Predict the structure of Phosphonate transport system ATP-binding protein.
Amino acid sequence: MLSVENLEVTYPGGIKALRPTTLTFREGEFAVLLGPSGAGKSTLLRCLNGLVRPTNGRVSVPGVGDIAASRAVLRRHRAATGMVFQHHQLIGRMTALANVLMGRLGHQNTLRSLWPSSRCDQRLGLEALERVDLLDRALTRVDLLSGGQQQRVGIARAVAQRPRLILADEPVASLDPATATRVLDLLRTICRTDGISAVVSLHQVDLARQFADRVVGVRGGEVVFDGAPARLSDGDLSRIYDAQPAEVLAAVDEAPRTRQGAIYALRTA
Ligand SMILES: Nc1ncnc2c1ncn2[C@@H]1O[C@H](COP(=O)(O)OP(=O)(O)OP(=O)(O)O)[C@@H](O)[C@H]1O
């Protein structure tokens, strides 16, 4: 479905966010990137969509090759790739439906995108909202929706795109545990039903265990575990969340959203 070969990212200032990494994400797989804050999960995800340009190596799609080979190839790859973000990236003053219809823009040429959405796109948008249980909120401004509902709109936007792949960057990091479980359950169910492959970054070990077909554990820009969630042992988790208690506490103070991973590290340190 999607391969990365010797992918390496060094940011300006010399930060090695990703060390040479080779991985293949399989068709229909729900893969979870698991790791602490700063491990390189977002960097890897963003490379998969060409949002971060690797310093070395490449991302390739079967039958297409390197996604960065040309602007046309990258555009096609992005049109087939739905993105779900931690902070939704929705436009608050627009309705849920209008936000979902943004997912269709990649399928239109520039001129067409200046016109109101076609009936066909509107139907796809409403169907996508129905699948995340928000049809009755289609005409509500998204800034009037709860965090969990907004993330479901984000998922509907990705689904309306009719993607082959969904990349989700910490999609439940700002949600309470019950809402996070519901949102991830919806995302995985839709991916399974439609045969969409997914790569999802998470901090929460329990959610990775519950939803992943495959866990890719990342630490310090390196893959330190790659396998089924049932194979994830306490030793593997210590390797992924390797940190001294003092560092872990500092991370909790700095970034409350990393708390779950940090607390796990504290327990296993
Ligand atoms: N644009 C950037 N410029 C410079 N350094 C960056 C940039 N983006 C990320 N980094 C650094 O690269 C490393 C990996 O960051 P990345 O965001 O990929 O990790 P992450 O595992 O997604 O973390 P988090 O869970 O906190 O989002 C970190 O040290 C981070 O500070």
About this structure: The chain has two domains: 1-80+163-237, 92-162. The mean pLDDT is 87. Residues 256 and 262 are 9 Å apart (CA to CA). The longest strand covers residues 15-25.
